[in-house]
Amino acid sequence: MATAKVAALPLLVLLAAAMSLPPASSLAVTSTYVRPRPRATLSVLHGGDGQTPQQVHISAVGSDRMRVTWITDDDAPATVEYGTVSGQYPFSAAGSTTTYSYLLYHSGKIHDAVIGPLEPSTTYYYCCSNSTSRELSFRTPPASLPVKFVVVGDLGQTGWTESTLRHIADDDYDMLLLPGDLSYADFYQPRWDTYGRLVEPLASARPWMVTEGNHEVERIPLLHPQPFTAYNARWRMPHDAGASPSGSNLYYSFDVAGGAVHVIMLGSYTGYAAGTAQHRWLQADLAGINRGKTAFVVALVHAPWYNSNTAHRGEGDAMRAAMEELLYGTRVDAVFAGHVHAYERFARVYGSREDPCGPVHVTVGDGGNREGLAKRYVDPQPATSAFREASFGHGRLEVVNATHARWTWHRNDDDEAVVADQVWITSLASIPACNKKDSFTL
Ligand SMILES: *[C@@H]1O[C@H](CO)[C@@H](O)[C@H](O)[C@H]1NC(C)=O
Ligand SMILES: *[C@@H]1O[C@H](CO)[C@@H](O)[C@H](O)[C@H]1NC(C)=O
Ligand SMILES: [Fe+2]
């Protein structure tokens, strides 16, 4: 017995060593960065009186308008006064007010007004509900390339969220894209309010375009059977604007930089199978894209379609089966997802295989929420997975011209933002081999 054990030991060591080697052809990287500990949930309180605007955020509507959304505890006018000089508001727009109830919680007055037409790349000063003591400002996105996006999912409202937001604010950008899971209110509605206050400094200054994650559903059988109540009331997106209105706040699309970039926000938690309203809308939206003019097409979705983390395995598979071919046919350049609380970048993939005409898939569900990081990965790393790391951080997509976009991922390295991954993404519309007439129709 003893001899057999001794003889088996070196064999086992050899076997283990062989198994831990990456496949010879793979350049896949699993980062070895050692993560700091989780941080506690924050609770940002409201300082003003009942009519003081709070939780202000903006979202782009069409090419030259902006929706301003804010909340007051008491009744206040749903007006936005604005102009291009601080302290002077020659323009004004009136919107509407809504409220919602959720179990015993009653929301404040949720106001929303669409302002414009606005000039591109211009700073506007504005106040809500005529509250001139609370002047805010935002800058409109550019009318042509280059354009800079921040992409970050699963934000939450912890000390790490604060760190992520600080790093985002440190470097200029034009628009933030959020692939789902905003507040982590998790049925406790006051946390939507604290979240609104936490993100206001950024979300009132640049358009924040979001789509829903599982934490937005907040459906309780019998007690509150209606899904997405807080999300739809507080984060209304331009689903009724642009070239292909979707009719649902849960999925929509819009153009940026004069149509050079088309962004498609998909909904992982509403019907997506063939024959559903979302699937039909996506087909029509993609059919309306002219890749001769649209340099980059990107899609956002909450549950990743490609994922080598042990968390949430397979949760995006059904949606991928229903929609991947549509995106591939239009040569969508990149798909950004959240849900898995970590970062992972895949090669260009289609049908689970590397494909030079498929989108780059990126999971960036690492905003900093209270559930912490998803640290366990499937081994060995699939050859299609180019880089993966379980840290908090945020991504940036800078579309520099009609052929090139630079993707960078910025880890919150303790409290510093460090570029931990970067890659150039070439527009698939500019690659002749991906645009042969027989392969698909432009
Ligand atoms: C806004 O405030 C100014 C000055 O207090 C006042 O003249 C004006 O009527 C107010 N407008 C609205 C819409 O309440
Ligand atoms: C687009 O940007 C890339 C990367 O900076 C550069 O190599 C390329 O020459 C640019 N193309 C044009 C047409 O300016
Ligand atoms: Fe999620």
UniProtKB/TrEMBL annotation:
Q: Which domain of life is it from?
A: Eukaryota
User: Signal peptide: which range, if any?
Assistant: 1-26
Q: Where is the Purple acid phosphatase N-terminal domain?
A: 53-140
Checking InterPro entries in the record gives: Calcineurin-like_PHP (IPR004843), Metallo-depent_PP-like (IPR029052), MPP_PAP (IPR041792), PAPs-like (IPR039331), PAPs_C (IPR025733), PAPs_N (IPR015914), Purple_acid_Pase-like_N (IPR008963)
Pfam families registered for this protein in UniProt: Metallophos, Metallophos_C, Pur_ac_phosph_N
Leading EC class? hydrolase
CDD domains, alphabetically? MPP_PAPs
Q: Does the keyword Signal apply?
A: yes
Q: Which residues form the Purple acid phosphatase C-terminal domain?
A: 358-419
Q: Which UniProt keywords apply?
A: Glycoprotein, Hydrolase, Signal
Q: Which reactions are catalysed by this chain? A: a phosphate monoester + H2O = an alcohol + phosphate
What GO MF annotations does this protein's record show?
Answer: acid phosphatase activity; metal ion binding
Q: Does the keyword section mention Cell division? A: no
Q: What EC designation does it have? A: 3.1.3.2
Specify the Calcineurin-like phosphoesterase domain's residue ranges: 148-343
Entries under PANTHER family matching the protein: ACID PHOSPHATASE RELATED, PURPLE ACID PHOSPHATASE
User: Which protein family is named in the record?
Assistant: Belongs to the metallophosphoesterase superfamily. Purple acid phosphatase family.
Tell me the protein's name.
Purple acid phosphatase
Q: Top-down, what is the taxonomic lineage of the species of origin?
A: Eukaryota, Viridiplantae, Streptophyta, Embryophyta, Tracheophyta
